[in-house]
Amino acid sequence: MTEVEIFEVGPRDGLQNERRFIPTEKKVALVDCLSRAGFRRIEVASFVSPKWVPQMADSGDVLRQITRAGGVSYAALTPNLMGLNAALAARADEVAIFASASEGFSRANLNCSIAESLNRFVPVMQAAEQAGIPVRGYISCVTDCPYDGPTPPAEVARLAGQLSAMGCYEISLGDTIGKAVPESIAAMLRAVLDEVPAGRLAGHFHDTGGMALANIEASLAQGVRVFDAAVGGLGGCPYAPGASGNVATELVHEWLTGMGWRTGLNREVLAQAARMARDLCHGED
After folding, report:
1. Most C-beta atoms within 10 A of its C-beta, which of 11, 46, 201, 220?
2. 33 an active-site residue?
3. What distance lies between CA 5 and its chain's CA centroid?
4. Domains, the chain, with CATH or none
5. pLDDT tens sequence across 253-281
6. The model's pTM
7. Distance (Å, rounded) from C-alpha 278 to C-alpha 268?
């Protein structure tokens, strides 16, 4: 198989940490541009408390105002039942829940233990199933945690298996602070593949340490064929110090196509979206 899917997360994970509030209409314009690029899935919104992530306070408006393209699934992050209901009201096509493989990050990000976070997801999963909406699972800190240090691969595998058993159709494995290297990614994946098949996994790499492409290559060798990326290389996690910079979608696309993989994306539209994304964060209103 020579096809690799890039899951675009720029409008959510890429913009969530921006200090200057970006107007709703500019977020909508970015999503509309990305919708013309050939993506199958675009993460658009996050229904978390505006107190903690103010940039995402207009998520419902963004989802309601975008021009939806055929064949594109528009996703939203939903940490709880309230968030899920808001996402459903705004016509999200799929939602995502997020957990951490390390206790320290779980408490910093979710204010609860890993076990407690899984318990919180039960009603979300039940309601999503009743609504017929797919749920994706994110796992943070799959190789390194800013609070706990290296993450044991067995802990990632255990959590991935639990999220899969709960009904997540795909598990995105996140190098949240960008410290992963091909060796640690390969070790982690070997453990996770004992619980979840490669066809239900995705890689989510920050390029903080300049190793994102090498980590994608290591993941491809293990059979992973879906990778999250943010147009323009935007974003990071507000709860992971120093974790700025998701790997850029256009960089991943160029690298993959140069290696003989097909992404189905339009290079010119991607370049336009990358310029828009950078202008959002560095330009003037």
Report:
1. 11
2. no
3. 13
4. 5-282 (3.20.20.70)
5. 999 999 999 999 999 999 999 999 988 87
6. 0.95
7. 16
